[in-house]
Amino acid sequence: MAEWVKVATVSEIPPSRGKRVEVRGLAVAIFNLDGQFFALEDTCPRDAGSLSEGDLFGDLVQCPVEACKYELATGNCITFDARVQAFEARVEGPDVKIKLD
Prior knowledge:
The chain is an all-beta fold. The chain has one domain: Rieske [2Fe-2S] iron-sulphur domain (Rieske Iron-sulfur Protein), CATH 2.102.10. 0% of the residues lie in helices and 49% in strands. The protein contains no helices and 10 strands. The strands form 3 sheets. The protein has a 4-stranded antiparallel sheet, with no helix packed on it. The protein is globular. The termini are close together. The relative contact order is 0.25.
């Protein structure tokens, strides 16, 4: 059964930035895109770069190692044949939560 898990507070992730969190042994990158939050598996499958350290370009995050660009909403890579898992994210009061199965 899916459940919503707190991963951060809104104040911990400034606009246009990402943050790496560990949730049940999984590294997750949380992004704040103008107050809308997104969550992706943090590790780029092509080069093991940390997506939470990447730059945001609109609704894309670029891996800091090999320049793979991933869609924040889907986890699909638009530059190579790659994908990371995307998680639903929402804000409840001061908390950022993601949905885990």
